[in-house]
Amino acid sequence: MSIESTQALALKARPFAYLFQPERTALVIIDMQRDFVEPGGFGESLGNDVALLRAIIPETQAVLQAWRDVGGFVVHTREAHRPDLGDCPPAKRERGNPRLRIGDVGPMGRILIAGEPGNQIIPELQPVAGELVIDKPGKGAFYATGLHEMLQSHGISHLIFMGVTTEVCVQTSMREANDRGYDCLLLEDCTESYFPAYKAATLEMVRAQGALVGWTASGAQLRAALAPHKPE
Ligand code: C5J
Question: Nearest to residue 171, comparing CAs of 140, 215, 138?
Answer without folding.
Answer: 140
